Amino acid sequence: MVVKTFSFIFFTLALVGLGQSKSFEWDYSGLNSNEVLSSNIANEIGNANQSESAEQLTPKDQLLYFTLIAFRDISQSYVDRAANISHSILNDDDLKPNDSPLIKEFLKNITEFMERYEKYEEIDELFNLVDLYSNTTSHYFELDAALASPDVLNIERKLKKYGSDDLDREFEKEFLRFVDRFYEQMDEYKGKLSEEELKKEMAMLQWLEEFKPIENTEEKIISFEKFFRFYED
């Protein structure tokens, strides 16, 4: 359930907790989009520097902004691919019409995802979409096939046919690619700090050293929650 863990942590901390943080006062309007996001993250930060005052976008805030943009882009890519998969599932003649309550519920959730995807605009809804699709699909890949019902196996086959299992794996890879870029951003951030400022950031730097050796992706995402805590006042 890597995707669900990711969406839960980012939605609850970044959008709720950080929205009230005094150290991060600029709003999230620049992060809202329902279009495919292809712009370079560095350019995003550069544009923010032009539009925000130095007090509003300090080096530490730039690090957070980089993270928010990256998480948004990972989620955007996920829901765009999920929409393509959902479209294929809803047009699969083998699943309709169907009298199975389980398959009816599954198709109902997929339909809800598509309806919300087609009209969403705000970033909080983007993360709701990640959560909705993940809740609807991911658990089918964790079931024991020997104990699963024919309807469950049918849904699992369709999800695999249209690439939903690949989507979950790609999500993990995208997060790990982000982590590599995050390390680079952290190195740049540390290079901008004075000795006194480095002392003030000792807790964050200690967390980073504990974060790096974690190999399990879900555990790594859970640990990343602590990064957002360093922006709470």
From TrEMBL:
Organism domain of life: Eukaryota
Signal peptide region: 1-21
Keywords of this entry: Coiled coil, Signal
Coiled coil: 179-206
Name of this chain's protein: Uncharacterized protein LOC101898940
Organism name: Musca domestica (House fly)
The organism's taxonomic lineage, starting at the top: Eukaryota, Metazoa, Ecdysozoa, Arthropoda, Hexapoda
